[in-house]
Amino acid sequence: MNRSRLTNMDVLIRTDASVEIGSGHVMRCLMIAELLRDHGCVVTFMMELLPGNLIEFVKAKGFSVVQEFKPAEICIIDHYAIDETWERSIRSEVKKIVVVDDLANRYHHCDVLIDQNMVPDLERRYDFLVPEHCVRLLGPRYLIMRGEFIRERQSAKVRDGNIERLLIFMGGSDPTNETMKVLAAMDDVKFHRVDVVVGASNEMKADIEKLCAGSGYTFHCQIDYMATLMGKADFSIGAGGSTTWERCYVGLPSSSTVVADNQLIATETAASLGAVWNLGWHKEVTVDTYKEFIQSLRTRRDEWKNMSERGIELTQSERPNPWVDTIMELME
What we know:
The protein is α/β, with parallel strands linked by helices. It folds into 2 domains: 154 residues, Rossmann fold (3-Layer(aba) Sandwich); 167 residues, Glycogen Phosphorylase B (Rossmann fold, 3-Layer(aba) Sandwich). The chain is built from 13 helices and 13 strands. The strands form 2 sheets. A 7-stranded parallel β-sheet has the order 3-2-1-4-5-6-7. The chain has a 6-stranded parallel β-sheet with strand order 10-9-8-11-12-13, with helices on both faces. Helix 5 runs parallel beside helix 8 and helix 9 packs across helix 12. The radius of gyration is 20 Å and the shape is globular. The termini are close together.
């Protein structure tokens, strides 16, 4: 590949974050943007001015953000509300379209589709949802990983199942308020260290910070060192979604609470493979549910050790981020 020819290639990323949507799409797209920038691309984000939008956070990472479409050589779309209608409307103004999805519930007019989840019938579920020429990159081998996770993976080890350092991260916006439920369940169990992470769009972040201070927990808000925390933790209490596979990638055993419909199948599949403990649908997961689970953590060492090993195994690939080569080859 002639990398010099690709310098200054324009890439437009269409995504959004909000209190309702959460921050996962934008955080994933930032990983993509940083890797493409390393390959000489000029990356611009297209984002709406929604409550909790993370636009300033994206700008702080060195990327321009626009609200109107601008022509580009490649448009990357990571958005559950976008389908073939918008993709066809921009086709004449972009050379290639790349879609990141995991719902498989609508048709895409794209050239590459990336779905990094492990779900039943993975190889066939997009058969009638993308054009015949579309390149499909499916499964955890195509995980979208920041450099910090790749570096952490190099030193990742199978955990021994002993739980002394706990990580709590229930998603950037945590619209179902799982973090507060977990903290309310922590009274009777003491750990050597507890790290609690929230996003800037979490409407309860001030209350959570106050609770952490009173309990001696370490509070983190909108961080860029999640891989480091995951690498140091013995166990994580988390939500479903892409962070499930990030935890697996660094060998961190974890629980997942399903906080959105789109997380259900992937979480159930990951649990059936032994990669995560599925606590269930958030409306059915109470403070008592978390309390009972937390109290059981230290009695299940073999289970967490096996989960750590399984997570590393499922996310194994020949090289990190192989999807980057596919995107760059679109312009060859």
